[in-house]
Amino acid sequence: MKRYFLTVVFIAAAVTAHGGLETAGGGYAPAGEAASFFSDARTQNRVDSLLALMTLDEKIGQMVLYTSHFTVTGPTLAKNVEQAIRNGTCGNIFNAHVPEYNRNLQRIAVEETRMGIPLLFGYDVVHGMETIFPINLGMSCSWDMEGIANSARVAAREAIASGVNWTFSPMVDITRDPRWGRVSEGSGEDPYLGSLIAAAMVRGYQGDDLSADSTILACVKHFAAYGAAQAGRDYHTVDISERTLREVYLPPYKAAVDAGVGTVMTSFNDIDGVPATASDFLFEQVLRREWGFNGFVVTDYTALSELIPHGVAADSLHAAELAVYAGINMDMEGDIYHKHLRTLVDHGRITHQQIDRLCGEVLKIKFGMGLFDDPFRYLDTEAHKAEFYKPANIAAARDMARKSFVLLENGKGTLPLEDGKKIALIGPFADSRRDMLGSWSGQGKADKVTSILDGFRRRFGSGNVVYAAGCPPSGDDRSGFAEAVAAAQEADVAVITVGLPGQWSGEATSLTSITIPRIQQELVRAVRETGKEVVLLIVTGRPLDLSWEAENSDAMMVVWYPGTEAGAAVADVVSGDFAPVGKLTMTFPRSLGQLPIHYDMKNTGRPYTPGQGEQHYVSRYFDTPTNRPLYPFGYGLSYTTFGYSDMEVLTPSVGMGTPVRVAATVTNTGDRPGEETVQLYVRDDVASVTRPVRMLKGFAKQMLAPGQSARVEFIIAPGDLEFYRRDMSWGNEPGGFTVWIGGDSDAELSGKFEIR
Ligand code: NOJ
Q1: Which of 24, 97, 127, 747 has the fewest CB atoms nearer than 10 Å to its CB?
Q2: Terminus-to-terminus CA distance in the chain, angstroms?
Q3: This prediction's pTM
Q4: Nearest residue CA, atom 9 of ligand 1?
């Protein structure tokens, strides 16, 4: 084999290799350095002058956000939105996404109210507005920061063409328990990668200029630690140490703040006994005082009234009071601020100054968005014609979808499928369009989706594709099995789409089982009995226990919910037109009992060491031979193979504050070109507190021809090794570290360095 060599240096791990996102390592730091579009003196003067003219009721109106009845995600209050806007009692609307309609509401706000303050129009534009990208968990598996930022840019432009100027995204909750349905909305389990993605999405939505016609206001959510809900049950209690909160869960929100995010949404959960929506610790201390956030905070849907069942507010008056003291600027849908803020002021329980501050922060954003200069700037009723589903948007969605797929098994080289083979395309998702969109799919239209069947027919030719659904996603209807078996018999290979329907992910979809429904497994078994090679395409919004599927297939690839371009993207990868590049961002467990599971666990005092014979009194499960997950974080195959060698720590001993340099060679050892995501992991061997067994501290993408090698060098910045020490001070400690470079979090090639 011809061998040639390439040298590549990736500086400061992911920090500059991924667009100068200085926030990744520093994202852990307590000091606030938030980027800001909104803190100039001129804007503040405009806010102060406006506040001086406003009545108390008008100020309260700016702190209220009502749904328009278009799309709702919870109980709605019977109210006349138009009249509320006209009265000045509602200054912001969400779920309205028709430019003509929004234009009329904006006209009422600007022309028929005393102060003429423009409205914000919020909406859940989470992974696309009309052109739908893969679900966010899928996108994160691309490890492609520019692609992810671009998905947000496309979404922003399509949102603007729908009359929306504020998105409730990015959702950056760290997720480690696949029982939780909302893992589909986030970027997985790792704070380092999650921080980079959070910043990329904020940049994508807001750009460099929030008042530009192509950018919208972003809202990072759900603050804080919503992903740590006990047992993966939605809205459930969070009870974690402050150290875990700060080191694991907070960094992505901090990265979003540092990237200049204009708004933050509260989370539904309580944390350490305090519902987030009433937490002055979270919003006043951490967000504002420590991080320097200067945008505004909105509650999640009716989260203020939920302070009553949480048991910290006696009634809704009390709930409003708690929220004001927690620094919450805006009440989403709850009616609590609308009804009670005046009474609280009248009774002296809150002050005019508090209202001025909270209302002023909302106005500041509206000024920053340029809404006072042109309230109709986002309301061009013709814009959708040029923007929706335009070729560049479709191309971006297709590219992101194929980069999001993770090839889990391909032991016999079944994939890619050779041209000319006859394919039996089977399973309940092969001809489904709606499922391809996943949850929170904006205004994405099912009839605009390329189904997997469409994609296969186009790519392989209709005559080469025999389709049979086989069975519904769940239930007992096996009447389609015979047709599926017959299709497989007729074909050279069977490709079976199995998994969970799109609506089984997202809010309020916690599951007690993370296996593929039994009927689908039976379908796979029946098809497999034909003796044909079986490829499984896993359609899911969460990690699943795929132990059975791994044993009962020849190749297996997770395709998530891939979005509008589902079929085209799946065909690209299955055909080999595009070689898989995705790497998991959430661990896939071996069984439900392993949950929660993530790669950066602690070692414990009795670690289990595989291959060391009988070990009883060690930290493991008695009924399972291994602690290992089925597929670890960072894992994903290509159509070629990669080998790692010649690991070298170039700076084995450095003084405190000096960067560390490490390098290794990655080689394409197979016979096809492929792109590898080279990953860098570090362990702090001895510290004043226990540290994770490994932590991702950098990654770099490398395209390699067969036989080609590249020398990849990482520079670990001192900030990347900082943590909360025993006394909760933030910084480095001297001592020894282990470092690994490889293709996933099980990377074996290692070295040592010391910080003096
Ligand atoms: C509730 C969800 O938790 C949140 O993520 C979403 O933005 C709001 N509803 C508004 O739809």
Answers
A1: 747
A2: 44
A3: 0.95
A4: 301
